[in-house]
Amino acid sequence: MNTTLTQMEQWIDERVTDPLHPEYFLLYAQVEFWPGVREGGALEEYYIIIKNRVGSVGDRLRDWVLKRFGVSARLADWETIPSLRQLRAESQYEDEF
After folding, report:
1. Which UniProt keywords are present, listed alphabetically (predicted)?
2. In 4-36, which positions are buried (b, 16+ CB within 10 angstroms) versus exposed (e)?
3. Are 79 and 61 within 8 A, CB to CB?
4. CATH code that applies to domain 5-53+61-82
């Protein structure tokens, strides 16, 4: 099991064949628990490895939160975290147009 962000990134880099179109990516998500942070509820942060597939990542994450935590939680925020390999590939890529 990957426990640190560095280990998660290494796991992804070992499996990605094209860094411009990665098969996996790292994602940061915030899950808010009822009654909400402003009313004294909890907010937890997660780093998740996601397999890249067709469909909305946001919808997949909302389904994950519902299945894992039930109706007392909601997906508050999320963003993808590009790997260093992906950032290097994007900076070296030259657009043909």
Report:
1. Plasmid
2. eeeebbeebeeebeebeebebbbbebebbbeee
3. no
4. 3.10.20
Residue with tokens 């860094």: 19
pTM above 0.90, yes or no: no
Alpha helices in 1-94 (DSSP H): 5-15, 57-69, 84-92
Query: Model confidence over 6-46: pLDDT tens digits?
Result: 999 999 989 999 988 899 999 999 999 988 888 888 999 99
| Residue ranges of domains in the chain | 5-53+61-82
> Which region holds residue 70: left if phi is over 0, alpha if psi is between -120 and 50, else beta?
left
